[in-house]
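Action item from last meeting closed. Structure (57 res):
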């Protein structure tokens, strides 16, 4: 890239930034999905414990 023009270097940098942003957005979306799934499982576990407590209470 030593022979690249300043415009070419700027374009390449913008491309790298755009790829990094897209990767971050994908990671954030995956983390949200995992969080939502975990929250649902914890909610189910708490409901099951509540039901046991009510039955044995």
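Sequence:
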């Amino acid at each position: 890239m030593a022979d690249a023009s300043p415009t070419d270097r700027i374009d390449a940098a913008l491309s790298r930034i755009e790829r990094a942003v897209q990767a971050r957005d994908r990671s954030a979306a995956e983390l949200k999905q995992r969080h939502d799934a975990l929250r649902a499982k914890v909610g189910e576990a708490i409901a099951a414990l509540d039901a046991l407590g009510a039955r044995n209470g």
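Note appended to the action item: Residues 6-56 form the longest helix (51 residues).
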